[in-house]
From TrEMBL:
Membrane topology: Single-pass membrane protein
Protein name: LemA family protein
Organism encoding this protein: Nostoc favosum CHAB5714
InterPro entries: LemA-like_dom_sf (IPR023353), MamQ_LemA (IPR007156)
Family: Belongs to the LemA family.
Length: 79
């Protein structure tokens, strides 16, 4: 019985670590996307790149919003 509890405890710890790792990867990807969008917007508004951007009707890209409290709250996991 104690062995099953210890295995369950290890499994739960592993799940929590995976959730935390996933949240970190999402935050990193969001930041990388926003960095790329900022660079794109800056380049498309700067000379001489803006000549090409205006010619081909490039539009301003939108940044992803920062994680709100609703996004940060991880779903509850229960077994």
């Amino acid at each position: 019985m104690i062995t099953k509890i210890l295995k369950a405890d290890r499994a739960m710890t592993q799940v929590m670590e995976e959730l935390s790792s996933t949240e970190n990867r999402i935050a990193f990807a969001r930041q990388a996307f926003n960095d790329a969008v900022t660079l794109y917007n800056t380049k498309s508004e700067s000379f001489p790149s803006n000549l090409v951007a205006n010619t081909f009707n490039f539009t301003v890209a939108e940044l992803l919003p920062e994680a709100t409290s609703e996004i940060r709250n991880a779903p509850r996991v229960s077994f």
